[in-house]
Every structure is written in structure tokens, then in C-alpha cells.
């Protein structure tokens, strides 16, 4: 269901671009949060049943990539981060989320555990933290700070060439780049709650 929520968010974003109906955009913003609820529930059910599998672990990571990697990047694009350099930052965000999840699956057995057998920390920022970015985008939408309305906070800067060309960048795209770097960081240790 986590993957379903993420997929529906992506399609709702696309529907917004086609129809300009704000209801689609609000659904697209809400569905990743619903995905998080399902992500929590599947972990609780697995612990309650005292079962796990490699297939379940892989499915969990793939669903997380859709809901917390691809869907937030598509939402940022829909809200207005659409320049060439913006899309480079958003693609980097998705790819770093993918790398973070792959590393987690490959190294989860190596992370120190507490007495209950749970990992004591996450290496790198967990990908569901991207819901913080979705919350910011929701705030922007509520305020009308998006493409076609009041514009993106911080505007756009031209790093090279003519304005409107490939050298344009919304400075807030850099936040997605920094978030991506935090996800793949080997030195950042986030305590597990």
C-alpha cells in the first residue's frame, strides 16, 4: 500500500499538470504521508508476527523509493522546479534515495544493535524524512508560492547563458541536493526512535 500511495501521488501530480485542478495537487501532496502510515504498519505487523523475508525487505525499499523519492521530486517539479538544472538536482535526489536504500539493505546486518536486536542508528538520513520537503511544498502551495501563481520563493538565477536557458536554477533546488547528500552520507548517524 505504501507503493500504491506513492504511485497515486505521481499520477495525481500528472493529472494536476494536465487539468490545473488543485484537488489533484492536494491529493498528490497528501498521499506520501498515507504511504508513511502503511510503511509503519507493515513493520509493526512483521514484528508482531515475528517474521521477515528478503523479499519483504526489498519490497519495502522499492515502495519507499516511490513514495519518498520519486513522488516528492515530481511534486517539486509540479510546484515549479522545472529548469534544466532543477531537474538535475531532482534526479540526483531520486538517485541518492535509491543508493541510500540499496546501502541500507546491504549493510543493515553490520549496524550495531541494541539488546532487543534493533539497529541503534541510521547511516545517512532515512528517505522517509523527505516528507519534510513535502510539508514545505504543501506550505508553498497553500500560500500560492508556485509556478503560475506567485512564483517560487527565491526566484530563479541564471548561472550561465541567457535567462530562460539551461543555466537557470531555482536556488531552493539546492535544498533537494543537500537532502540527497545527507541521505547518502556515511558519517551522518541518525538515532533510531
UniProtKB/TrEMBL annotation:
Pathway the protein contributes to: Lipid metabolism; Phospholipid metabolism; phosphatidylethanolamine biosynthesis; phosphatidylethanolamine from CDP-diacylglycerol: step 1/2
EC numbers on record: 2.7.8.8
Signal peptide: none
Superkingdom per UniProt: Eukaryota
PROSITE patterns: CDP_ALCOHOL_P_TRANSF (PS00379)
Membrane topology: Multi-pass membrane protein
Pfam families listed in its UniProt record: CDP-OH_P_transf
Parts of the chain that traverse the membrane: 24-41, 62-84, 90-112, 124-141
Organism: Scleroderma citrinum Foug A
Protein name, entry field: CDP-diacylglycerol--serine O-phosphatidyltransferase
GO molecular function, one term: CDP-diacylglycerol-serine O-phosphatidyltransferase activity
Compartments reported by the entry: Endoplasmic reticulum membrane
Keywords assigned by UniProt, alphabetized: Endoplasmic reticulum, Lipid biosynthesis, Lipid metabolism, Membrane, Phospholipid biosynthesis, Phospholipid metabolism, Transferase, Transmembrane, Transmembrane helix
Record's GO cellular component terms: endoplasmic reticulum membrane
Lineage, top ranks: Eukaryota, Fungi, Dikarya, Basidiomycota, Agaricomycotina
Reactions the enzyme catalyzes: a CDP-1,2-diacyl-sn-glycerol + L-serine = a 1,2-diacyl-sn-glycero-3-phospho-L-serine + CMP + H(+)
Family: Belongs to the CDP-alcohol phosphatidyltransferase class-I family.
Gene Ontology biological process: phosphatidylserine biosynthetic process
InterPro entries according to UniProt: CDP-alcohol_PTase-I, CDP-diaglyc--ser_O-PTrfase, CDP-OH_P_trans, CDP-OH_PTrfase_TM_dom, CDP_ALCOHOL_P_TRANSF_CS
